[in-house]
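Hi,

Apologies if this is the wrong queue. I'm a grad student, and the batch job for DUF839 domain-containing protein from Mesorhizobium abyssinicae produced an output file that my downstream script rejects. I'm not sure whether the problem is my script or the file. Here is the sequence I used:
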Amino acid sequence: MSCDQGALAHARAGRLRRAAKATSGFLALALSAGLWLGSPAGAQETQIIYPGSMAVTGFPGTVIPNFDSSESEEGGLPPGVDPVDETFIDTSRASLRVFDVSHLGGPASGQLVYTPPPFEVTAGQIGEVFGLTYDDGVRDGVPSGIPNLYAAATSLHGIEIVTPDADSDGRPERERRGAAGAAFMEGQFGTENGGGPGTIWKIDGITGAVSKFADIDTNSGPGIGNLSFDPIHRQFFASDLDTGLIHRIDANGMLIDTFDHGVAGRPAHGLDPVADDGAVMDIQGAAFDSEDPDTWGYTQDERRVWAVAYHGGRVYYTVGEKAEVWSVGIARDGRFAGDPRWELTVKADKDYAVTGIAFDNKGFMYLAQRGPVENRYDYSRFADSGKGEVIRYWRENPDDPATESVWVEEPQEYAIGFPQGNRQSAGGVDLQYGYDAEGNLDTSVCTDTLVNTGDKLRDNPALAEQLAAGGPFAVHGVQFTPTPLVKPANVPPFGSWFVDFDSYFEDPEVEGHVGDVRVWHPCEGRAGYYEEIPGGYLPPFYPPDFPPPGNLPPCLAVEDVQYFCTPSGLEADLYLHDHAGFGGDSIKALSKTPGVGVTSPMSHAPGTPYTIGITGHYPGDTVDVGLCFYRQSDRDKGGYYPCCKMTLPLRTPAVSCEP
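Support response: The file is valid. Your script probably expects a header line. Output copied below for reference.
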């Protein structure tokens, strides 16, 4: 067989689907993979991120270095050598791509979408990455409108190790087990650029330049679960799969402090604290097995934090394989508030980790599962795919006191991919703008499209005839679905569009080769559900007809107000301070603005803000709200009860909640 040098130089086993038992079969696959279209794009003068840009992470593919004898005297494979032993991560291929998905080419019909060539960052630059987030685009203190992109090192696409070349073939020796002198394979963690398993990389949104942003240097190999950016305090959060800690990182990449869910979070829900067991990944120790994730030094499942998402003044995070969703508040100075709260235990068919979490501005929380971590020696499988779900929850309205969670008990599910069961989630999820009937991006409609990563998205022999017109079947990438299309709608998902991660379609059997997805979707003019909305409130005053006696200060002050969107409309969380020691624990709210309705809950949980609902107003209006602050025990006695009264003028945000 003769092939040109270019093909051989980039020969890889694609996303090798199976162990190659026959050398000839393996080489045919490796060489055909060299025909992958496109080449890594370098830094450019114009911006690489626009509203609607979609970043996706995934496994870059493999290569047999120095295979062509014309390139190296040690090239080729001697008889009897297993090609898999000589196959390595292809550092010239991309582990991160940024796609232009502004035009999907027509109405959704389950088809593959061919996008313009994406901007690419190679495995040689950053290694293998999973978690993604954007910042706010503030540069030198000035908003630019163009964010930077951040990507975190991962073990979710396998752990590959090598020892120095021992057979003089110009290639290091692949190792299945820990061995003296072992090192991480090139392309695993971007070591050429100073990266490691705890590295967070920064990709400049204007130039595409890549730099190391932060490093959790205590991470021994498990990597980072996911990332989130807090635009209010301009800081980042990263979950550490080695220790279970959530790290707080400032805008300059400096680690500030941590939150330990296992010790500080679990007791808030009546669970025993679980400290990190101190296990680490030791690739030079005999116990390490590259095909056994239990030897990789992950912290215990009970404290293992996967996804993180800053939302409405809190960091929401997911824990464990039998996934739970928790949150912890962020104080006004940006610190962890020390008020961890169990939100819900995920109801899904399989107890899989939730590695992606996203919120829209209609009151929904979206969760994406990823199958258990695996690492086949032939690179074919990094997760047990085919049963992972993408689901969404929303808050009960009103809260049902008979249920433990404030979220609904039964989530809604989306049909992901065409294989039977439609549960092909690879663990990444985010929201995109809306699309019109012809598949063109509509930035006036915020968070109207679900985007999620998945495996084998168009593979279903029973539907082959219908699917054939829409492109190749072996699509491992991203699915786009209008958010209203929850099951049983869109089963099978012909109401969705699909984008492949690497435009290589000869790999139907791989699993877990796609990672996370993040969309840059700034939503000016829209309020975000449980997102802080600029606008604030006017200073509260004590009404003339209820003056404080003598020179005493008012018995009640409002320290902060945060506005949220819910399925029922605008809500305001009031942070009240009992200056006079009145001892109130409940409020009653009444609108003093004609035509505007104000509601308040019948009960209030200690330590939480007081929530009121506002309807019938125009965005930006100031609504006068009368508050009665009282003790529930006094009211329960019947008759007159003392009430600290005030009128609070709330300046509602000049944005509207989408219905």
